[in-house]
Design goal:
The structure is a homodimer of 197-residue chains.
Chain A: E1 2-3, E2 6-7, H1 8-19, H2 24-38, E3 46-50, H3 56-63, E4 73-75, E5 82-87, E6 92-98, H4 107-113, H5 124-134, E7 139-146, E8 158-161, E9 168-171, E10 186-190, E11 193-196
Parallel strand pairs in A: 3-4
Antiparallel strand pairs in A: 1-2, 3-5, 5-6, 6-7, 8-9, 10-11
Helix pairs in contact in A: 2-3
Amino acid sequence: MNIGPYTLEEYKNLVKSFHGYLAPGLLVGGFMVDHALKHLPEGDLFDAVCETRNCLPDAIQLLTPCTIGNGWLRILDLGRYALTLYEKYGGRGVRVYMDVRKLDSWPHIKTWFLKIMPKDQQDSDALLEEIGEAQATILGMEEVEVRFDRLEKKHKDIIAICPVCGEAYRAQSRGLCKACRGELVYLKTEETGVKIV
Amino acid sequence: MNIGPYTLEEYKNLVKSFHGYLAPGLLVGGFMVDHALKHLPEGDLFDAVCETRNCLPDAIQLLTPCTIGNGWLRILDLGRYALTLYEKYGGRGVRVYMDVRKLDSWPHIKTWFLKIMPKDQQDSDALLEEIGEAQATILGMEEVEVRFDRLEKKHKDIIAICPVCGEAYRAQSRGLCKACRGELVYLKTEETGVKIV
């Protein structure tokens, strides 16, 4: 049993090292990405869309060339556990999702995925075992075409220097940077006390 | 010269394998994360905020336990090339940024960082070499305290089944999922042609 270019054990170790622990979502996610890769036309340059912020983006980052930082992975937080790999320029691709209609024979997966019981009452070993047995049988797949007009555009930004904080920032036009316009999440700790940036 | 737990060569190879190529932003980013790690109180559990979507998140993912999928890394897209590592529960931490006031002795870095010339007219070997020489001398650092009230809250979601697409989704309340309410980016390719989901 392989997940992408890795054996199951290798993939599990990668997950622990990158994600911090062997989350069930990463194990399911590995089978999902693997399933998508197997159904994508070979040799194409592809990008990824992930429909959730939870876990799944890390499976995509581990198993494809698409990462958050290189921009080939986009997160479109629709809350669905699903991903799409699509041909970069044409937009044709495959979308893979967890199919809840196929979970009846897998009680641990169903309980976890639909949050039927609180996490501390779930049997995580049995859950991981079921995921390893179920593999791609609990997934759905469909061919899709990504609508580029619906994806957020990558703007050609300029680099401006903010007259308040003095830092460089990417923007469409000059002026105060977003942080200095109020989108702050920090207090600066000064020697004399604490003041708001 | 080390970057986090890696030699410079090891880090460069990691970057190529994860990010796809040795982007200057990942090399600078490596020194930035390393600088932040060196100034964070040891042993603390920390989370990360990244102020740009470009490149830097990958340096954080490679050099800290914080990833997009495990939620310990948040991207707050302010367009500034800066990151903060902060103590998970108390919020105290360090913010590291590119300090444009320190770039005058580094013409290739300045040209690249401020986009003074188009990319194809820049000398990328000389740029990488300068970054390797400059290391942390081009960075600024400040102690900060993250304002949790300004960070997007992680809601306790339920899992609902959408009556239209039949898929499970995370939500605050039941009803149609976001995708079926119009936040679509796909066309489904049916045997009979193409129709909008």
